[in-house]
């Protein structure tokens, strides 16, 4: 466990996420998710966590493992076509993780998701958080549209509102 990482998480409290993602930005992100979901039959969720607390921090939980916990907690895996996708941002680690259910993950693969994550992180490094998230949602939506085009009755299985933890 790195003392540097613990210090970064203790200093980078949750206020940072709320500062970078105020209600107006969250509303635009929600709109981007809604718009993207008109082009495919998948489900997209965006979660930003300012820093880890308690157990996850002191267990030295990596961002990927934390994203898997969030994916499960929000039941993103619980979609009819196994095509739910979580875009998870852990601000204190400056790390983006995409967790996709097996239906879409088998088609895009780790390398495809990693490309989207790295593009988002590049935007974040230049201070363009809103643009990075919206571009990431658009990229995920393009993958979903290619493999799960809209067809038949489409119901929104998961909330579109971003989650700030």
Automatic annotation (TrEMBL):
Name by which UniProt lists this protein: TPM domain-containing protein
PANTHER family: BLL7265 PROTEIN, UPF0603 PROTEIN YGCG
InterPro entries per record: TPM_dom
Signal sequence, start to end: none
Superkingdom of origin: Bacteria
TPM domain mapped to chain residues: 19-141
